[in-house]
Amino acid sequence: MSNFRIAPSILSADFACLGDEVRAVEAAGADMIHFDVMDNHYVPNLTIGPMVCAAIRPHVKIPIDVHLMVSPVDRIIEDFAKAGADLITFHPEASAHVDRSLQLIRDAGCRAGLVLNPATPLGYLDHVMDRLDMILLMSVNPGFGGQSFIESTIPKLRAVRARIDAHQNAGGSRIRLEVDGGVKVDNIGRIAKAGADTFVAGSAVFSAPDPDGGYRGVIGRMREALAEASP
Question: CA quadruple 46, 90, 82, 164: dihedral positive or negative?
């Protein structure tokens, strides 16, 4: 159970009081803050940049998980590292040289990962497993919160889990497997059984009504579902 990580996405938070929001989800038991960066170029939406990351960094002690949906990606990596990111992931389609982008992240002192969209093939993982700390599978098409989980992510998760297990069994370093998009209390257990260990949840957390326990209540119910899914 302790292997699982829940990462609320601030894309669904109240931006008028973002400091309060990130403190609230940390107090409610979140393991990471998921930080969605969109450029209105790689994806059809425009969100937040390094200044916002730097602004929330003093408000939380848990890691900030920065997901870059920008193209090109290399220029902005160092900015987010300086702003307080702990982990930076990007889409391979947004980089001219995936290996170099991963090295830039690590050279900046952050953990590094790749993000695969629903239709992105797993071949992008070939030859870079030794540089990865995280693989993030999108279970929606990136750009907007509140979308429904794409079911074809389940077999894709199993396939990526098999790759990670083979890598680790051969002596490779640990790689976390994250899922982002449509993750809710009623499907998080099934997603975990398919191989995920890290779960991004945006609207499922930040839209939780107070009568149901608010943020602490929904994160607690997710942990209960994960406990039931554990072997």
Answer: positive
Helix (H, G, I), strand (E, B) or coil at 22: helix
In this structure, whether the domain defined by 5-229 belongs to CATH 3.20.20.70 is answered with: yes
Residues marked as catalytic: 36, 180
Note down pLDDT in tens along the chain; length 231 residues. 469 999 999 999 999 999 999 999 999 999 999 999 999 999 999 999 999 999 999 999 999 999 999 999 999 999 999 999 999 999 999 999 999 999 999 999 999 999 999 999 999 999 999 999 999 999 999 888 878 999 999 999 999 999 999 999 999 999 999 999 999 999 999 999 999 999 999 999 999 888 788 999 999 999 999 999 987
- Domain ranges for the chain, please list them: 5-229
Is 24 in contact with 1 (CB distance < 8 Å)? no
